[in-house]
Amino acid sequence: MTLFRKLLLATGLAAAILAPVAASAQDVKPRIIRFGYGLSEASNQGRAVKFFSEELAKRSGGKLKLKGFGDASLGSDIQMQNALIGGAQEMMVGSTATLVGIVKDFGVYDLPFLFNDEKEADAVLDGPFGQKLIASLNEKGLVGLVYWENGFRNLTNSKRPVTKIEDLNGIKLRVMQNPVYIDMFNRFGANAVPLAFSELFTALETGTVDGQENPVTTILSSKFYEVQGYMTISKHVYSPWIVLASKRWFDGLSADERKILQEAAIASRDFERKDSREATTQSLALLKEKGMKINELSTAELGRMREMVKPAFDKYAADGGADLLKGLQAEIAKVRQP
Ligand code: TK8
Predict the structure, then answer these.
(1) Pairwise CA distance, residues 328 & 324, whole Å
(2) May I ask which residue range the UniProt record assigns to the signal sequence (predicted)?
(3) Each residue of 119-171: pLDDT tens digit?
């Protein structure tokens, strides 16, 4: 071996060894990333934003500074999506359900009782189906990085326990701004009122609406127990969150910066899902402590609900969603335990 070759090998080796710590040798510029979210800093969402920020700092030698803005202080989900598209804000996390005004196909996740458990959701969201939907955001000016878990949604209200579907009759129930939700809860006999999450607590407090539906983690962290006496464990929909970046902004990043962002996002996803799942059990106990009257729905009643919303699936399919729905159901079938 020539001396030259030996030297080359040695420097190559040195570079490989140094690579993980040599963030400064990468093409990474100091950047401030404004990251908006709807829940409080103390929520599972807030904790995951903090984790994401720390990961980015670690992986970029402190150059990529992610600043979290909680409590919808940069706007509601829909306002933030538009700010990302326009390039006025860099990043956010929010419900996939609020994306339907931009990519209608995201509504497919909102059909009730699709996923049986979190494992099915993870496999489908992180697999080809979920990733294809994420890719469809690009032509709309958004980049989807990863799905986080919002969780299985449950009903709360201030009027009465809901043990059978008829108990929902006449209840003014806030839903996300999404036609599948409006359709579903009207079929259940409630009066569905679409409203941004950022306006929800006040709407519940003032009695503009009687109830709402969200995962137990959110019901706790947003203090809905202060204005809602009853909770029904219905788990009617598994709700994903999605971490989004402005495409305008993302396109201006170097390849190294994008890679760091993607990898930190995946780390944040794994952290967030684990944390949210642990928090779910704790939240339930805390909500009981806070005095909420909590009941489950019987299998028979859940069966009635499934029957009742069958036409919602037909409607969704007839509105152009047939292939998408079939595709999703096929992906779920692949991972479903017999
Ligand atoms: C927070 C929302 C929330 C969602 C909702 O911005 O609107 O009910 O469940 O998590 O995205």
Answers:
(1) 6
(2) 1-25
(3) 999 999 999 999 999 999 999 999 999 999 999 999 999 999 999 999 999 99
- Mean pLDDT along residues 184-197: 98
Domain architecture of the chain: domains with CATH: 29-335 (3.40.190.170)
How many CA atoms does the CB half-sphere of 165 hold within 13 Å? 18
- Residue carrying structure tokens 């990085």: 145
Residue burial 212-222, b: 16+ Cβ < 10 Å; e: rest: bbbbbbbbbbb
Q: Is the CB of residue 196 below 6 angstroms from any atom belonging to ligand 1?
A: no
* Ligand 1 binding pocket mutation candidate from 96, 218, 283 (most atoms within 8 A of CB): 218
d(CA 168, CA 127): 36
Nearest ligand 1 atom to alpha carbon 76: 6
Both tokens of 23, joined, read 């963030």
Ligand 1 within 6 A of CB of 107: no
